[in-house]
User: What shape does this take?
Amino acid sequence: MESVVRLAVSVGGSALVAFVVCRAADLLARFADARHPETPLWGLLRRCRTPLYVVLLAALLRWTYPLAAARRGPLEEHTEAVSRVLLLFLIGGGAWLTVRTVAAVVESSYARYAGRSRDAARLRRVRTQVTLIMRVVAVAVGVLAAAAALVTFPSFRTLGTSLLASAGIIGIVAGVAAQSTLSNLFAGFQIAFGDMVRIGDTVVVDSEWGVVEEVTLTFLTVRTWDERRVTLPVSYFTSRPFENWSRGGAEMTGSVFVHCDHTTPVALVRAHLQEFLTTCGTWDGRGWDLAVTDTSPTGITVRAIVTAKDADDLWTTRCAVREELVGWLAREHPGALPKVVTAPAADAFDRPGERPRTPRQQRSRQPARDPARPADTPPDRSRGSDPNATP
Assistant: This one.
């Protein structure tokens, strides 16, 4: 009974002390966040409450549990095992707390930089680099924490010594086996610091138009216009060509094609396009144009060129221009819309200037056949006007 009481006091006291310290740190961070709203650091540090509580609880239990099990009793038999488990929790919680703290500092620095910079392309580049750096830090801390946890076991210490002796062979084997993974890893660094593609860029990959949503050390996610996610290895962007519509500036120029009749008043269409663009909110005002780019026996092709500040606005502007031009022609100039000719063609033997005859008129002009004469008998010319004709 005494051992149970000592264990309850040890666990309860450690949990209470850890809770009080974490609560005090949270209140301090909240107070600092209210006093300094210009920086989000203190608000981001509040996300470290849970790992801080784990670290404090594990550290206090590692200190109080041996004291509770000092006297001979059932607790003393498990002191070594409990201490090792608490040490593992301490290592894991410390790695978790380190990652959360570094993430808060990095995100705070990026937020302050984003508040001062107005260059959208540079902000996307810095955001991509920060994301990849955070992933590298998380992986490195996780590896170190796992190594530290394995070292706590005596059997793994001996294994580690033997592995270090054969590190050369293991390195060669791992390099050959993980060739694809290593290529993606180095490609991720090349993308992050080579400014090839950034988070938020508009790209066209395998005829798929979308926006880069996530960049990791091994893969890249593109969100398409219809809300699908296309996941590609980062080595794809270093070995194959792709379109990056956001590189060198987000401004874009697009074209709209409208098929019309030969009688289309192009000058009026051009004037109406200029008038419509002045009321279009997605047109950036940099430039526009309208010209006849092609002709065919059935009509002409009119091309309108418009500009916009980014790919999304360009798509909206093109759709609006196409809809407006077709609607305006249908209302004001219906004859300018393309037509399919279904009228009968004129007879080749008609005289110039004569109106084409209908099929009924063409049948009426044919000579009537004598019903008494067979159909295959040539016509009787004895009644003609030739005076030399033989009766």
In short: Residues 135 and 201 are 20 Å apart (CA to CA).
